[in-house]
Design a protein that fits this description.
5 helices; elongated
């Protein structure tokens, strides 16, 4: 081999080596600049921007330390509302052995009628009237997650369509399982 051929071969090897290291760095930089990925988002629900506690909304904390699923029932609980209540209950059951650590609470403006109560498993739900402060601070048709210390940390907007109910339930279930796994309280 001539000296020129060896020189070309070593240049080509050097260029290939540089490409192997430089191309991934350039791709990573482009991915960050163009926001191709979510930055460290692991929760499905929306974290609350402002700190909010159960005492801020006049919801009495229970003596036993429990994780709470708070559903703010709309003034007129229609079929969508009932389906959301069932979806929350299904998520609650899907927690399996962790269900004793969680309590679903329905915050209602007015009492449920007999037909609505038939569709709810009252053994699992705590139904209480919505306090005045909760009306001002909590959004209707939203599910909130409160930790055993009384901090409301996550919120989920209820789905508009029945088809979205399973995705809604899975998102809540994923977050609750993570929270319960890493939590030593409640």
């Amino acid at each position: 081999m001539s000296k020129a051929a060896v020189s070309r071969k070593s240049r080509r090897s050097l260029l290939l080596l540089l490409l192997v290291f430089i191309v991934p760095i350039l791709l990573a930089k482009m991915a960050l600049d163009n926001q191709w990925f979510n930055y460290g988002v692991t929760n499905q629900g929306e974290l609350l921007d402002e700190p909010l506690t159960l005492s801020d909304v006049d919801i009495e904390a229970f003596t036993e330390k429990q994780w709470l699923l708070l559903y703010t029932v709309p003034q007129n609980c229609d079929q969508r509302c009932i389906e959301t209540l069932k979806g929350i209950e299904n998520t609650y059951f899907a927690l399996g052995k962790e269900t004793p650590r969680v309590t679903p609470i329905a915050l209602s403006h007015s009492p449920f009628n007999a037909e609505q109560l038939k569709q709810l498993n009252q053994k699992h739900w705590r139904i209480q009237s919505t306090p005045e402060k909760a009306l001002q601070r909590l959004t209707e048709q939203t599910v909130y997650v409160a930790d055993p210390l009384g901090n409301i940390i996550l919120q989920y907007n209820t789905p508009e369509k029945t088809q979205e109910l399973t995705t809604f339930g899975k998102a809540m279930l994923t977050d609750l399982k993570k929270l319960l796994k890493y939590s030593r309280i409640g």
